[in-house]
Amino acid sequence: MANSIKSSMPPSQGAAVKLRAATYLSPNIPVEFYEMTLNYLEKALNLHTTLMYESRWEGPPPDRADPFIENELDLAWMSSTVYLRMLEKGNKYIELLPVSSTHLHPRGEDRPGYFADVIIHKDLSEKVKEFLDLRGSKWAYNRAESLSGHIVTLQTLKELGENASFFGNILYSGSHLESIRMVINKKADAAAVDANCLALFLDRNPCVRDDLKVLSSWGMLTPYPLVVNRRLPDDLKSKIVTTLLDMHKTREGAQALSEFRVRRFASISLQDFDQEKELIESTKSLSFDTVYY
Length: 293
Fold this sequence. Notes:
The chain is an alpha/beta fold and about 290 residues long. The chain has two domains: about 15-100 and about 225-275, D-Maltodextrin-Binding Protein, domain 2, CATH 3.40.190; about 115-220, Periplasmic binding protein-like II (D-Maltodextrin-Binding Protein, domain 2, 3-Layer(aba) Sandwich).
């Protein structure tokens, strides 16, 4: 990886600052989105960025060395559940940048966050009209720490007075993309998936658009957190936030964002994660019995 940024020493005049970034949200959200965002920051702020792509987890795993504590990473996109877990464990080297993306969705809410779309194969449309009609079905979920693919499903079942036995068979997919493919290929009857992942997948695979039906949308859910290393200079963190907030105001930025169905970046705060904390607490005694396909 690139050398560490020394917060006590400003970069020499004209020298580009090195920024080590990572995304744990790909391939569900195309890695090109994060490459595009970093390229924009490079041009605006005279940065040299590197991007680590990690698809095995939704954030730094708890059984490995923490890249923020070890000062191996400056910035990362990760799932909100992993971010909250790291906060709960008292990680002193992470900081939430107060900015996140807003996305196009039929529900039309122009604020940071996203939805979980419950999808079924179109062939089930006649007999499945609402979520309760999925009793006894084959249900796919991506990961235990996934808010949109797992935790909100558990909460919905709890509110209905049900549990995991509501489904006839529960299949572990490993990713939102694989959950989508399982429904298309009829390995699973239904799944809850990140709505942005679904929309971008269908943009790139229009031939299967008619194979799927969105039964319902749950949310809005917690914004995607952009987590930064506290060791970064405060002025650099501030410039990153300001540049992202203004990105949609430029022709180049607006066009780049629109290619990924992003309206703009907008301000967020730690309070935006309070509802998810309550969800995690409410469902911590619940789980799916994992069945690998």
